[in-house]
């Protein structure tokens, strides 16, 4: 597919007709015994039960993820098989860090609009709880030659022991969200962004408080009831709603938390997204097939765009580079957008991106544009909370955002939504969604 979609009329149009997600829960809690395949199967099964879609109508399943089970990296295919869906369903798994499921949904839309499929399930998920614990490379390099040698004896194994340093060569390595190219933790990169863009601790905590309050309000009003499905855990307990949201938190409580990435830093466990387990799945069809099957479309893509930036230079600024381009590709300006949803890896990252999007100097230097996209009104931004409050299962966040925004367009008089996602590796993604009724006349 091309790097960004063009604002042109096509014969076939992909529409989002439904979507669900599991409740998002903190890692090492309720979903401890559910791996990425299990969670993905829960989401897809919930989607099929909700829609009543006949299984033989599914052409493909595209899945996004970051943490893959050992021996089964094609999570999408395993979901198909575990659910007993027709084995003829094409299925694959894509990874683009935190924007993986946004990419899987975009690929589904592309396949439909190219005439390669009529009905596609797309989404993603991750189980941080089941991330593999890695043994030191020195241990593997020392042990493997002997372990693979059928003739190895006691003396060979004693030689292995002699080569290994006490403890350091045998202890498992603690999993970390760090950049391979720089060695920098993502939180450390966000801390640098906060300093570089003059984002204070108070600003971050205020943004965090708003995220929790908005997410709590959405839950209390039943706003998520149409998209969050109950999940029965291995212990028999049923999780009905997100468990990380703290609607009763306060600035005072947030202010007492200690910095976690730098001694005198501003990022805390409160204003950073938590390690999270969860999955989300969306159902896409051609508009003709949706009409034929009696589905009412929620929304459609008007554009999308993908970028990469230098990981050593403001790792998480991708949305500031890609959102203005997606907007331009859609033939729109910020004033035309009714709601904006930006992934909240860290409050500091979102606040930094907002400053960049409002900066003419940034637009000229980074994009070659004459002026900035503009300042996003707070009342339009992350209106139902974001990842800081809801949690962030790496492979599921993009799909969560698409599903929530598609429902927002369908349930209200809003016409357009702009999405932005930062991702590890210095990646950025953005998309413009539009209400189908309004877009049919504007395309």
From TrEMBL:
Question: Could you give a GO molecular-function term held by this entry?
Answer: acetyl-CoA C-acyltransferase activity
Q: In which pathway does it act?
A: Lipid metabolism; fatty acid beta-oxidation
Cross-referenced Gene3D superfamilies, in alphabetical order? 3.40.47.10
The broad enzyme category this protein falls into is transferase
Q: Which organism is it from?
A: candidate division CSSED10-310 bacterium
What's one Pfam family here? Answer: Thiolase_C
Q: What is the lineage of its organism?
A: Bacteria, Bacteria division CSSED10-310
Q: What is its EC number?
A: 2.3.1.16
Protein name (database record): acetyl-CoA C-acyltransferase
Show where the Thiolase N-terminal domain sits. Answer: 15-287
């Amino acid at each position: 597919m091309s790097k960004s979609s063009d604002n042109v009329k096509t014969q076939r149009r992909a529409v989002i007709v439904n979507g669900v997600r599991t409740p998002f829960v903190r890692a090492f809690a309720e979903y401890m015994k559910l791996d990425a395949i299990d969670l993905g199967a829960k989401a897809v099964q919930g989607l099929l039960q909700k829609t009543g879609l006949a299984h033989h109508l599914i052409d493909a399943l595209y899945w996004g993820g970051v943490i893959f089970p050992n021996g089964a990296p094609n999570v999408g295919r395993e979901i198909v098989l575990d659910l007993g869906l027709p084995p003829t369903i094409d299925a694959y798994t894509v990874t683009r860090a935190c924007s993986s499921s946004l990419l899987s949904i975009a690929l589904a839309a592309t396949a439909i609009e190219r005439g390669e499929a009529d009905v596609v399930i797309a989404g993603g998920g991750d189980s941080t709880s089941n991330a593999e614990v890695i043994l030191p490379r020195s241990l593997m390099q020392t042990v493997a030659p002997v372990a693979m040698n059928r003739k190895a004896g006691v003396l060979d194994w004693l030689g292995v022991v002699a080569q290994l340093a006490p403890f350091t060569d045998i202890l498992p390595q603690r999993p970390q969200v760090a950049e391979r190219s720089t060695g920098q933790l993502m939180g450390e990169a966000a801390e640098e962004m906060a300093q570089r863009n003059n984002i204070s601790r108070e600003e971050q905590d205020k943004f965090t408080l708003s995220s929790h309050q908005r997410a709590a309000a959405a839950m209390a009003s039943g706003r998520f009831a149409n998209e969050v499905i109950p999940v029965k855990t291995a212990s028999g307990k049923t999780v009905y709603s997100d468990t990380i949201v703290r609607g009763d938190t306060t600035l005072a409580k947030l202010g007492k938390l200690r910095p976690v990435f730098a001694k005198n830093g501003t990022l805390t466990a409160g204003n950073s997204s938590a390690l999270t387990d969860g999955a989300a799945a969306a159902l896409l069809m051609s508009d003709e097939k949706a009409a034929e099957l009696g589905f009412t479309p929620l929304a459609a893509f008007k554009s999308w765009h993908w970028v990469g930036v230098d990981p050593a230079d403001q790792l998480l600024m991708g949305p500031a580079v890609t959102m203005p381009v997606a907007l331009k590709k859609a033939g729109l300006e910020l004033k035309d957008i009714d709601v904006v949803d930006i992934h909240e890896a860290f409050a500091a990252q979102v606040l930094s991106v907002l400053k960049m999007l409002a900066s003419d100097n940034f637009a000229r230097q980074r994009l070659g544009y004459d002026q900035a996209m503009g300042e996003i009104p707070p009342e339009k931004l992350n209106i139902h909370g974001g990842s800081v409050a809801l949690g962030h299962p790496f492979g599921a966040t993009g799909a969560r955002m698409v599903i929530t925004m598609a429902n927002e367009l369908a349930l209200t008089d809003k016409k357009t939504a702009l999405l932005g996602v930062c991702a590890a590796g210095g990646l950025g993604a953005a998309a413009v969604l539009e209400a189908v009724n309004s877009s049919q006349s504007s395309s």
